Amino acid sequence: MKKWTKAIEINATIQQVWKYLDGSVENMQKIMPQVIEQKPVKITEEVVGSIYRQKFKEGKRTEEYDIETLEYTNEADKKKLKVGFILAKMFDITALYELNKINDTKTSLTYTVTTRPLKWYLKFLLIFATDKTVVEFLERFKKVAEAESGR
């Protein structure tokens, strides 16, 4: 298993940052442009256990998988969303987003991704995996959130 954790400060309110994770597909696509569709499969009242079918375009290939909400917190000063999915029947992936209000105009975002290979021979691929994708994602997230909040 490989795990990456990175944090970034975003000059936007916690609500502004949260809307990209807990809002419309259009908002999610601003930070994850590869997502082309997301539809509910099963929605639970407490959010945890909800499942969405997501279509994701990588190059010319389109993948489809079910994303399950594993953790969910939506408080005024602290928000958390953890989702899990199986990618291409090869990797079990979790993504954890933790938002903390620093002040009225600044939010801390901590992003943790774990990737667990489902087949023994895929373990070798993870040896060469870097945090480049995680860093690029956080930089895009910050840029979008700050541009839309006017900061």
Word description of this protein:
This protein has 151 residues and is of the alpha+beta class. The chain has helices at 14-18, 25-31, 123-127, 132-149, and strands at 2-10, 35-42, 51-58, 61-74, 78-87, 91-103, 106-117. A 7-stranded antiparallel sheet has the order 1-7-6-5-4-3-2. The longest helix is centred in the last third of the chain and has 18 residues, at 132-149. It is globular. The chain starts with a strand and ends with a helix.
Q: What general form does the structure show? A: globular
Total beta strand runs: 7
Instruction: Spell out the helices and strands N to C.
Output: EHHEEEEEEHH
Strand order of the largest sheet: 1-7-6-5-4-3-2
What is the distance, rounded to the nearest whole angstrom, between the alpha carbons of the first and last residues? Answer: 38 Å
Radius of gyration: 16 Å
Q: Strand-residue fraction?
A: over 45%
Q: So how many helices?
A: 4
> What structural class should be given to the helix and strand makeup?
alpha+beta
The main β sheet shows up as: 7 strands, antiparallel
Mean pLDDT: 93
Unreliable stretches, pLDDT < 50, 5 or more residues? Answer: none
Helix content: 10-25%
Quick summary of this structure?
With 151 residues, the chain is α+β, with helices and mostly antiparallel strands. It has helices at 14-18, 25-31, 123-127, 132-149, and strands at residues 2-10, 35-42, 51-58, 61-74, 78-87, 91-103, 106-117.
